[in-house]
Write a structure and sequence with these properties.
The protein has 20 helices and eleven strands. The protein is of the alpha/beta class.
Length: 409
């Protein structure tokens, strides 16, 4: 193996502005026993020549391409290809926030007052949670028929499968889709149909989470709870409390949570997304098995310690959190790395693919670069998602087997 000194002595062309690779670390992992081969310190290496020289030095192979797992610098075009190849999961993705833009434009032609679709459904890079949620006015409006709901579910699964997402839990609020006369049952079954059809066509497993909206009455959340029970063991695995946080604490909907827990369904609750660390404590006390987002957990050290002790998974959605949290200027400002280091089971998810213009590959690539995540940390995040999934044990065993085969080939 070439020494780091001889490698760094290799000649390179002068770099151009914005083409400088920042100082960082490259990890190369072996095919046998995940052995760390060598650690290179990189100083102002010209990106294209660096990659060419690396491939020449190690006699390029497909294995090498898949073994370059991290560069603490700015070679995202390399890293995205590698992350794309990973077998990934998405545990927090909203159906009405993850339509294809083209599908929204097509379906919106029937709306009485046609808005500027792109400006309406893609919020600013920095905005309030309320402004972010306003983007759903259009997407919910176009999902009022069985055909549109089935199509949206199928296309979401298709898009996820094409970036090698092997398991996904879709969530949506069924009571928001009754404007044209559908029953809640017809709404749920239309979405399940799209998911089932996608599973036939693509190597992806899916489950459905029904959302109750925190700004709605507790009576409505109890309706959602009972609706979820109707589809227990038929594709629905949990309920969620979603929507605005300010003035709408989760505790208002305790009855709905009690109903589904008694029936054996799972519970996840949006809390601490754009404010309100105390809502995370309420969610835990209600019996939430996972916390949606949990960005503001750091503001409540006692609850943070409880999350650490109980190993409660956080459904982190980096880009969405960056957009609306109000505490971040970059991915590197996200407290997720602090939580990961504390031993909290972090999962990485998309939240809303349309509104944030991202996919799971983007999210994992972004935080890998921001925090220089090690290969073991990436594997841990993927493993966390499998353990936290609201899936049957045989499905989890399958997901673990897929990961085992990938990481041990």
């Amino acid at each position: 193996m070439v020494s780091s000194a001889s490698f760094l002595a290799s000649p390179h062309q002068p770099h151009q502005p914005n083409e400088l690779l920042p100082r960082g670390i490259l990890f190369l992992w072996g095919n046998e026993l995940n052995e760390l081969y060598e650690l290179y310190e990189l100083y102002e290496l010209y990106q294209p020549l660096f990659f060419t020289q690396l491939l020449h030095t190690f006699q390029y192979s497909r294995f090498l391409e898949l073994s370059i797992v991290m560069i603490c610098g700015n070679i995202a075009y390399m890293k995205r290809d590698l992350v794309y190849d990973l077998p990934k999961l998405d545990l927090h993705v909203h159906l009405d926030g993850s339509l294809r833009l083209g599908t929204v434009v097509e379906l919106a032609q029937d709306l009485p007052d046609l808005p500027n679709i792109k400006e309406t459904v893609i919020p600013p890079l920095r905005c309030s949670l309320e402004r972010y949620l306003a983007a759903f006015d259009v997407t919910v409006a176009v999902l009022q028929t069985e055909v549109s709901l089935t199509r949206a579910a199928y296309e979401l699964c298709e898009d996820a499968a094409k970036e090698n997402v092997i398991y996904m839990e879709i969530r949506f609020a069924p009571l928001l889709h009754l404007r044209k006369g559908l029953t809640p049952q017809q709404v749920v079954e239309a979405v399940l149909t799209g998911m089932t059809e996608a599973e036939k066509d693509y190597p992806i497993k899916t489950n459905l989470i029904l959302c109750a909206m925190k700004q709605e009455s507790p009576a409505n959340s109890e309706k959602v709870a009972r609706l979820a029970i109707e589809y227990l063991d038929k594709g629905v695995v949990a309920i969620d409390l979603a929507g605005p946080e300010v003035n709408f604490p989760p505790i208002r909907h305790h009855k709905a949570v009690e109903i589904v827990r008694a029936a054996g369904l799972h519970v996840t609750i949006h809390a601490g997304e754009g404010c309100c660390a105390n809502h995370i404590k309420q969610a835990i006390d209600l019996g939430a098995e996972r916390i949606g987002h949990g960005v503001y957990l750091y503001e409540d050290k006692k609850t943070e310690n409880e999350v650490v002790k109980k190993k409660i998974p956080l459904e982190i959605c980096p880009t969405s959190n960056l957009q609306i949290s109000g505490i971040m200027n970059s991915y590197a400002d996200h407290p997720m790395k602090q939580y990961l280091d504390e031993g909290i089971p972090i999962t990485l998810n998309t939240d809303n693919r349309l509104m944030s213009q991202i996919d799971v590959t983007h999210e994992l690539s972004a935080v890998s670069e921001a925090f220089c995540l090690s290969w073991d940390e990436i594997k841990m995040i993927l493993s966390n998602s499998v353990s936290a999934a609201f899936a049957a044990e045989d499905v989890k065993d399958h997901l673990r087997e897929v990961h085992y085969r990938y990481f041990n080939r």
